[in-house]
Amino acid sequence: MPELTKRIEGRGTSDRKLDHVRICLNRDVQARQITTGFGDVTLVHQALSDLDLEGVDISGTLLGHRVSSPLVIGSMTGGVDEAVPINRALAEAAEEAGVPISVGSMRAAIENDAVSHTFKMVREICATTMVIANVGAVQLARHGPSYGASAVEMIEADALAVHLNKLQEGVMVGGETSFSGVKSAIARLVERLDVPVIVKETGAGISSEDAIALKSLGIKCIDVSGAGGTSFAAVEYFRALEQDSDKNQRLALGFWDWGIPTVASLAEVASIPGLEVICSGGVRTGLDAAKALALGATCVGSALPLLRRANVGVKAVRDWIGSFSDELRLAMFLVGASSTSEMRRCPILITGQMRLWLSSRGMDVDAFAKRRG
Predict the structure, then answer these.
(1) What's the CATH architecture for 13-345?
(2) What confidence tens digit (pLDDT) does each residue in 131-190 have?
(3) From 31, 42, 70, 285, which residue has the greatest number of CB atoms within 10 Å?
């Protein structure tokens, strides 16, 4: 499959989504100075654990759905015909591996039914695995719960993700920054829908304060999407560069590394009881996933590595998922955890900037190291 390199003229929703995919495929949009924090997390090796590698079970559950792995294929694309081969590759790999998949923002299809097939195909392929719909918080606040319900109905989704993207909208040329009413819109959505609602960030993280507020609105699952992986300020920098907007270039450069590091966000949100937590934002390996599980994650999400492999084809996606699973299984074997639930009892050391962050935020960092498995 050839890479998407052509810039599409026009500023419609579909064109903007294609811009995002093209830039992520062809530009360096990773964080530059801020890191995820996984380097400050060390799993404690257990040399005497009574466990066979073949006996390690990496399956689990997410919002009541059995999953073969704690991996969630993160929200990426849709709404343009050029995205169809990418979504097909991702969906085929998700169905084969038995892992959940979240589609990209569905605004384009809600606005224009002619492109709805670019999303519906995911459900057509994923007959058994969990499919997550996706809408923006700004549009939800503007149009009400029926907006989210239409996204769920369109792809017969098992859950709906509502994405928060204040940073991206704030630096974007023509960004929509009217976030008034978002909380009440989420609360009404939870009451309206028969499927669970996930609230997710888009690369800037979720704080414990936000997690408490979201729980009070009826949210049962949060995707932290912390800083340190793909920076959507970086993506919007390159779009502003192409559109000759000096103002938005300056804003995007200044906020390229804005946000709560992924590990810090995960630890903060996981400290709030009663929430399932998806850890995304720079998760690149099965070892990252093992650390996330030990910090309290229910699942982990990854997008950019899979997007780039989906642009090659389904085999590349399949191979990445296989390597991810092998790494996660080996890490669990080395710490003596036979299941993903046991990972949450394994001792871990948190050092460096993450220790400083979490201690400053009032968390007992040493409690992680004192766990006895």
Answers:
(1) Alpha-Beta Barrel (3.20)
(2) 999 999 999 999 999 999 999 999 999 999 999 999 999 999 999 999 999 999 999 999
(3) 70
The rounded distance, in Å, linking the Cα atoms of 74 and 232 is: 14
DSSP 311-359: TT-HHHHHHHHHHHHHHHHHHHHHHT-SBHHHHTTS-EEE-HHHHHHHH
Distances (CA, A) of 181 to 43, 125, 185: 42, 36, 6
The token duo for 109 is 């299809």
What is the token pair recorded at 207? Answer: 């704080």
Q: Give the single-character DSSP code of 162.
A: E
SS3 68: coil
pTM: 0.95
Over residues 256-298, the pLDDT tens digits come to 999 999 999 999 999 999 999 999 999 999 999 999 999 999 9
Domain ranges within the chain, ordered by starting residue? 13-345
